[in-house]
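FAQ: What does a ligand-bound record look like?

Like this one, built around pyridoxal-5'-phosphate:
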Amino acid sequence: MADLRTLLGDVAARAADHRARVREVAVFPRGEPVAAVRAGLGSLRDEGADPAVVLAELAAAVEPGLVATTGPRYFGFVVGGALDSATAADMLAVAWDQPAFNAVTSPAAAVVEDVAGAWLKELLGLPQTASTGFVTGAQGANTVGLAAARHRVLADAGWDVEQNGLAGAPAVRVLATGERHATIDRSLRLLGLGAGALQPVATDEQGRIDVAALAGALEGGPPGRVVVCLQAGNVNTGACDDLAAAVPLAHRYGAWVHVDGAFGLWAAASPTTRHLVEGVAAADSWATDGHKWLNVPYDSGYAFCADPEAHRAAMAYTAAYLTGQGQGDLRAPGDHVPESSRRARGFATWAALRELGRSGVAGLVERCCALARRFAAEASAVEGVAVVNDVVLNQVLLRFGDDDATTDAVVAAVQRSGECWMGATTWHGMRLMRVSVSNWSTTEADVDRAVRAVATAWRGAR
Ligand SMILES: *Cc1c(COP(=O)(O)O)cnc(C)c1O
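The answer part, i.e. the structure of the complex:
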């Protein structure tokens, strides 16, 4: 016991040290991280080792390959930081080691997911009657939402897809824009609908669905069941589809509406951005992430479904010994996700929501948006640098000079600088630097420092 206390105390100290250092260190490690980590890990031994030795070896081996993703100047992809409470709660979740598939294996895990799920729905402006699944991320949540959609549209057509599969089933059309996230395609592949079920719908210049084009696609397509995938938060521009128009339109044609709101759904949590997702509550299923804007550690995402029966029909266990293991109105977590045995994801989410409260979540969203606007304003003041999107949320797209190669060179130089990290994207035929401000700990000084690093890289490249 004394040894375990020492071991876990040492781990806590290492965790705290790492989280303090991410402000100071090169954001992406210098040198040859892959080779260094591989060399540090060594080969499988015949004999084992003391846990303290194991941890010391592991920490030393991976150090040269750790990226400061949880730090304030990581602006790549849409990577969130990790709040202190949520990080600590996740450490406890691992120590408690609860198999969180139902209320019998862990009443604590089941109740916490139930309560945190209700809090999430309230913050995101979703109906309290919606069912919730705690999944690994928006990829998992898109899969769950589209599985529920597949169930409902085919059940309405008299087809039992869970029993009979898709061979011989009525055709299902999926309407989505060319600016959908790549995870939608993967979910459709996994669900057997295939990427071929997709019918692209045009967008406007910010990547929002063209509602008139959606009307045309709903009207003009071949007969068959329809699923419409909308987006709250375009991964490049941050733009949100006009949900207030598109959701009722799709419903007039009997379509199921799924909203991919991996980060953009969080616009609902602040009165300053809520208008961007007006009408979202009328959709049928929603996907969002905990590990992006809520700043819960990886991995954490949520699937919500306005049709709990379709949700459970698509996901629940059918083996008799595993079904019905919710208690009273306490649902079984495992009946709402694709995984069976799973980590208790609710603890970290509950902790994040308790640390921030309603005002803290709103403040986090507002702060990230204000910092994104600051980034855009400062960067566009540099000669030859253009912001190419309307900065409505936390995403900024930058173009350097007017050719792709220069922009790629600036991105590479910024990444090498270690000052900050952002990636490149291709959007509307252009190579661009994509900046995402999604971390609770990012300050104005961090943004100013990052813009200086970008300006320096641009001067070097031109
Ligand atoms: C990030 C993202 C996803 C995928 O989320 P994961 O957390 O990587 O599973 C899906 N859709 C959008 C719009 C995203 O930004």
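Follow-up question: can I read anything off the structure? Yes, for example: Residues 375 and 447 are 6 Å apart (CA to CA).
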